[in-house]
Amino acid sequence: MDCLNTMKSELQKGKRIGQVLFIVEGEKTEPNLIYKVFSGIFGYQMDRLYRNGAYRVFHRTDDLHSKITVINTEESNIQFIDKDNEFLSRMFTMLIEDYQLDIDNAAIYYLFDRDSASNTDETFIQNMLSSLASARDINADMTRQGMLLLSYPCIESFVGMNLLENSIQYCRIKGVQSGSDLKRALHEDGLLANNINEHTILYRTDELFRSLEMIGVNTENEAFMNSLDHFAENNSAIYEWQEAKSKESQQYSLLSLMAVALLDMGLIKISE
Questions:
Q1: Helix (H) or strand (E) run with residue 58 in it
Q2: Which of 98, 130, 144, 191 is the least crowded, having the fewest Cβ atoms under 10 Å away?
């Protein structure tokens, strides 16, 4: 973005978002963070379908046309989002038949980690970044829609981006090389998800753009927002930059793309 210091961010609380599905690998951290943001701050209902088939509604509301649903992949590995994965197909069928989720018209986001110890199949990840490029437009190769959003080195990067200055440098400064390293460092520094609120999300939206600008992504407002309709090119640029950083220093730079979902859903409005 040309003038980050003039950027103005506004939360769009109360906005109709339709049905939104988050597909995650972790059973605790990711759903808790999604609940904190989308129910705790924005006030949306969140439903969850667990791996064992149990279903629970969190923060029930009267607006069933604006609802967040969270499911897990079969195991905590990005390989399990493959289009032929039977477990994920069964989860989709349960959501459609038992819980009336309109999958065809839902916005779908895949939240996964990228560090040296997890999700290490680079070819598969690159293919998924290309195929899962839009939350709403069906990709013929996948037979469904979806946007893959990676966190470096783990989902807790979103917490760091909310609570740190110059967050992209945090892993280098703290010697963080893995997701477990980051979790420990954030805890030691008192940087906890409970401290996230609407002010930190607004104040730190520019942290995302500052980081993306450093990576080389075009962060001019209109160009970036238009890229969300097909995020493959920017997603690949971020991935390749992070891989280069990892090969250079054995570290990924702290970055979470969960904030991209907020922008894509129109929950944060950017103006200059």
A1: strand 55-58
A2: 98
